[in-house]
Write a structure and sequence with these properties.
Layout: H1 12-63, E1 80-83, E2 99-102, E3 106-111, E4 117-122, E5 130-135, E6 150-154, E7 176-180, E8 184-188
Length: about 190
């Protein structure tokens, strides 16, 4: 039997170690890839929220009050219009008695009354129950800084966020916890 002393090649152990390392790196890459994809979807919602904010401010300057329905705003949005109604003491997305529009991925809510706000929330996908919020005015104390964008994880209603706390607003959107109410957790996010 002849033994080769200068044989070149890789042992099975070396190949397995390389495959395991590549697998670990690929799994980290997939997590980051999913975050990038979700951030691009979130950018769509944030852009929508900011456009709604500007339309609401224009409406407020003209009429002295904030709009209570999207139809009142100079704002084009294609989607199915629904009227949120209370059933079994659970709110629709976020608030009672709001007007909403459902698109492919987002629900738009305009809260009227003494604490007007805008909410754009996810209604489908792995992050259903998350969204973005802006408080326009608050007559009964400030819950969140006025006219500041916030990320939220909804705790009640049809679109409740069912994943681990902070897993969207902190882990994906790099937010910082701000407050928790009966209906949601709010987070400051980098502007």
């Amino acid at each position: 039997m002849k033994i080769y002393k200068n044989a070149t090649g890789f042992t099975l152990i070396e190949i397995l170690v390389v495959v395991v390392i590549i697998g670990i790196l690929a799994s980290f890459g997939m997590v980051e890839y999913r975050k990038v994809i979700e951030r691009s979807r979130a950018a769509e919602a944030i852009r929508l929220l900011r456009n709604l904010y500007h339309a609401e401010k224009l409406y407020h300057i003209t009429h002295g009050v904030y709009a209570s329905a999207l139809d009142e705003l100079d704002f084009g949005f294609k989607g199915e219009k629904i009227v949120c109604s209370q059933s079994n003491k659970t709110p629709c997305w976020g608030y009672y008695n709001t007007e909403g529009v459902r698109g492919d991925r987002w629900s738009i809510e305009l809260e009227k009354g003494k604490n007007p706000s805008i909410t754009v929330g996810r209604i489908e996908g792995p992050f259903s129950g998350t969204g973005f919020f802006m408080q326009l005015e608050r007559k009964d104390g400030i819950q969140y800084p006025l006219e500041q964008l916030a990320c939220l994880e909804n705790l009640k209603g049809k679109f409740t966020y069912k994943k681990k706390e902070n897993s969207y607003c902190v882990d994906v959107m790099d937010g910082t916890f701000y407050s928790k109410s009966a209906s949601s957790r709010k987070y400051e996010i980098p502007q």
